[in-house]
Design goal:
Strand 1 and strand 2 form a beta hairpin. The protein has 13 helices and six strands. The N terminus is likely disordered. It starts with a helix and ends in a 10-residue tail after the last helix. With about 270 residues, it is α+β, with helices and mostly antiparallel strands. Strands 1, 2, 3, 4, 5 and 6 form a six-stranded antiparallel sheet that branches. It has three domains: about 80 residues, no CATH class; about 130 residues, no CATH class; about 55 residues, no CATH class. The chain is elongated.
């Protein structure tokens, strides 16, 4: 604690609007995070912003992992988040932005690619899993969760649980659920490598509404894509007959629920079949 106060006292300023000097004395990201938290505590947004600007780029033990100091730094510096820092290094140059523990990227067709680092609890404490998702504005609108397509498209930072197509990274690659241990010295590099070699091509393959619908029609329904989303994706992709046929297969399970849902997205089901 004394060394931290000494570091803080070495940054001099005469008023709340002063610009702190460049910070060559900050030798690692953890120190930067501590100072950032202190500047935030002053309650002066301008001083906080000036500090962030003064420490970019920051030196690290890995030159290739030089990151711009941001509001996410206190989180990035918390225990066990070397995985998140490595993910940020891999994904930021590829158009992803970080919010909390979730990365977002809007592609050319307005779909939002989502990557989330999920912390384990109880028996999985000290471990994390990586979740992938694709948010489809047209489906959000069809299901009545937005009033206009503009409103649906404005949601550029959806939660991973809001995504219409979802997949666990380890399931995509290995066909099983894997949680990465924070104490594993190569967990960060393992996760980043899997993202670059498997997750990004997956997003590329499913980069349009039509591509997602085609994959669903081939029977390659991505894990955790619910039946309602499945039908809605086909509907907004222009395949109303395909959506009706898919829903008809579920009528034996819960015909009333299926028909009510079908009607809500503009599909009329026959009395005894598609």
């Amino acid at each position: 604690m004394d060394s931290f106060h000494g570091m803080v006292s070495s940054v001099s300023f005469s008023s709340s609007n002063s610009v702190p000097p460049a910070a060559p004395q900050i030798i690692n990201l953890a120190a930067a995070a501590g100072l950032f938290s202190w500047f935030r505590a002053t309650g002066d947004p301008e001083l906080e912003d000036n500090f962030l600007a003064s420490v970019s780029p920051l030196p690290t033990t890995r030159p290739e992992q030089r990151l711009r100091c941001s509001a996410a730094y206190p989180l990035l510096m918390s225990a066990g988040n070397q995985i998140l820092r490595s993910m940020n290094v891999a994904l930021k140059p590829r158009g992803f932005t970080l919010s909390g523990t979730t990365f977002h990227r809007v592609n050319d067709t307005q779909l939002v690619d989502v990557i989330n680092l999920q912390a384990g609890s109880r028996g999985l404490a000290g471990k994390s899993a990586v979740n992938l998702g694709i948010y489809i504005p047209e489906v959000h609108l069809l299901l009545g969760k937005s009033s206009t397509i503009e409103e649906a498209c404005a949601n550029v930072t959806p939660r991973e649980t809001e995504c219409m197509v979802r997949q666990r990274l380890s399931t995509l690659v290995f066909g099983k659920d894997i949680w990465y241990d924070h104490s594993d010295p190569v967990a960060d590099l393992t996760v980043s490598g899997l993202l670059l070699n498997h997750a990004l091509p997956w997003f590329e393959r499913l980069g349009t509404l039509q591509a997602i619908a085609a994959e669903l029609k081939k029977g390659l329904r991505p894990l955790l894509t619910g039946w309602g989303y499945h039908a809605a994706i086909l509907k907004v992709a222009g395949d109303t007959a395909g959506a009706r046929s898919f829903l008809a297969q579920l009528c034996d399970v819960d015909p009333i629920k299926v028909k009510v849902f079908a009607a809500s997205i503009g599909i009329e089901m026959a009395a005894d079949g598609p």
